[in-house]
Specification:
The protein is α/β, with parallel strands linked by helices. The chain is 45% helix and 19% strand.
């Protein structure tokens, strides 16, 4: 994926700031496949012990396991997955700017 450097930096900063501060678990909801792939491929640049991608219900058991056993986690939920309160209630919600979402999702 060919994300602009400034967009890449912004996407990483938006998750790294809350993780560096005090939030143990953060989440981004309704992500396009391009954004899921971006964060997955840049997991080493994220200040989290785990980056968990939840695309569908098959990924739920792993996400629940990580929720219970790990701190400093970034949960990424795909746009086709309805997030259960078991996961959403323990996460700080990160909102991405709409213009940024549109640019990256259209690549």
């Amino acid at each position: 994926m060919n994300v602009l450097k400034k967009d890449s930096d912004k996407l990483l900063k938006l998750v790294n700031l809350p993780l560096a501060d005090y939030h143990a678990r953060i989440a981004i909801y309704n992500l396009s496949e391009n954004l899921l792939n971006f964060y997955s491929s840049n997991a080493s640049s994220i200040n989290a012990k785990k980056v968990v991608v939840v695309r569908n219900s098959d990924d739920f058991s792993y996400a629940a396991h990580v929720r219970n056993t790990c701190d400093k986690v970034l949960f990424l939920f795909g746009e086709n997955y309805h997030v259960d309160s078991y996961l959403s209630d323990v996460c700080f919600r990160v909102e991405l700017p709409k213009a940024l979402i549109k640019r990256v999702s259209s690549i």
